[in-house]
Amino acid sequence: MAVRRRIETIVILNIGALTVVLLAVLGALSYFNVFNYSIQNAYEMVNFAIAQTDVRLTMTFEELERLTRSLASYDEVRAANFDRLDRLFYWTVHERSQVLRSVFLATEDGRAFFRGYGTGFANGYAALPDRYDPRTKYWYETAKRGQAFTVTDIGQLDTVSAIGIMGVMPVFDEARSLVGVLGVDMTLDKIQNIIQTIELPNEGK
Question: What is the pTM of this model?
Fold first, then answer.
């Protein structure tokens, strides 16, 4: 429920998310001659699209939470063994490229390993800036404070000049010492893709 409330807050209160939602709705409506229908019908259609948007985004982030928690259970993640995480992270993103942009692990000693798909990645690897320290990033502190899976505010992603959302959670070893932060991210265009799959009733009529 906490994740659902967080997603609803993002959709309702964040201007960036609202812009994506409204653009997607207007894009869907542009396929139809809205002027042939009453304002009431158009109003109901928009309300339906927004309600479905909430459902789709909630389902998406609940799935991302399950995925992140599953990855956090791997010994390779808890040991921060980047060599052995290579294929695991790559195929995780590759099989979910319609939604995910990257999977990453950042550690308490300042290391970071990103595997991703699309802009910002060369052969699936991120080109991080010199002296990149994930511990200084807002998402790292967010995960440490939250002590559980958390959806961040919309903001600049680390490995590409784009705005997006991250799902992050702390990772602990068997002694309950903090290993670092595991996360996934998605750009706003990925969110828009999800929204555009919404089918309007009666073909929008």
Answer: 0.74
In angstroms, the CA 92 to CA 66 distance is: 13
Neighbours of 179 (CB within 10 A): 19
Residues in the chain: 205
Please determine, for residue 63, whether its predicted confidence score (pLDDT) is greater than 50: yes
Is-contact 167 151, C-beta < 8 A?
yes
Task: With H, G, I as helix, E, B as strand and everything else as coil, classify residue 75.
Answer: helix
| pLDDT at residue 29, rounded to an integer | 54
- The answer to whether the beta carbons of residues 3 and 49 sit under 8 Å apart is no
Tell me the pLDDT tens digit for each residue of 165-194: 899 999 999 888 999 999 999 888 877 777
Nearest alpha carbon to residue 6 among 154, 158, 147, 144:
154
Q: What's the CA dihedral at 144, 150, 153, 158 to 10 degrees?
A: 60
DSSP code string of 80-141: T-HHHHHHHHHHHHHTTTTT-SEEEEEETTS-EEEEE-STTEETTEE-PPTT--GGGSHHHH
In angstroms, rounded to a whole number, what is the distance separating the alpha carbons of residues 80 and 72?
10
